[in-house]
Design goal:
This protein has 210 residues and is of the alpha+beta class. The chain folds into two domains: 79 residues, Winged helix-like DNA-binding domain superfamily/Winged helix DNA-binding domain (Arc Repressor Mutant, subunit A, Orthogonal Bundle); 109 residues, Arc Repressor Mutant, subunit A (Orthogonal Bundle), CATH 1.10.10.10. A three-stranded antiparallel β-sheet has the order 1-2-6. Helix content is 47%, strand content 13%.
Length: 210
């Protein structure tokens, strides 16, 4: 049985080399010499160590697993190294993504009823970028496609589960003379989030949307 001293550097190595969040179940399979409690203790030690302000990265619980990610404050310098523009989504795409995220499973007519405009192009863009997926078809006339978000969506926005999404009440600003729709507000919040988080590996989408 490994002791804590041995398991911590092993976990650090695994998190460093993995290009996607590592689930606890996977770590247990990789480390049969240890056990779940010892692995969780090692994870806790690493998280505590990397909370130090002098560290440029942190071990975050993302999309049901654990991954080293650049602390948001240093993301700008990382993007300089990558020499790639931050992911940019148009406002229609952000609005559509917000509706899918909060209303999933959701069909296209429901999305368009909320937005008031055709959303085919935005849905196509989000599917191409792997942020949403087809979950099946609804048992309605025409068998419309049902959409939901993906693991890549959780990774991009630094979420562990969908329950980590802020509530509408949390991001709703005070009433203003000119009314702003909830999906526009959520879209703006998502844009801020995607500009401020960088994982230890390149994200799957790295070009600006026209």
């Amino acid at each position: 049985m490994m002791d804590d001293f041995e398991i911590k550097p092993i976990l650090e190595s695994l998190f460093f080399i993995s290009d996607s969040p590592m689930r606890l179940e996977t770590l247990v399979e990789i480390l049969p010499e240890s056990n779940k409690e010892a692995i969780l203790n090692g994870i806790c030690q690493i998280q505590t160590e990397y909370e130090d302000p002098s560290k440029g990265i942190e071990l975050a619980e993302i999309a049901g697993g654990y991954q080293f990610r650049t602390k948001p404050i240093w993301a700008g310098w990382v993007n300089r190294l990558k020499k790639a523009k931050a992911i940019k989504l148009s406002q229609p795409s952000l609005e559509t993504l917000a509706i899918v995220a909060y209303r999933q499973p959701v069909i296209r007519p429901a999305i368009e009823e909320i937005r008031g405009v055709d959303s085919g192009s935005a849905l196509h863009t989000l599917l191409e970028r792997g942020l949403i997926r087809v979950m099946g078809r609804k048992d309605l006339p025409g068998r419309p496609i049902v959409y939901g978000t993906t693991k890549a969506f959780l990774e991009l926005f630094g979420l562990n589960t969908l329950s980590d999404l802020p509530t509408i009440k949390e991001i709703q600003p005070p009433p203003a003379p000119e009314e702003v729709s909830p999906q526009e507000i959520i879209g703006d919040e998502m844009q801020k989030a995607e500009e401020g988080v960088t994982s230890s590996q390149d994200l799957p989408m790295n070009q600006e949307e026209e």
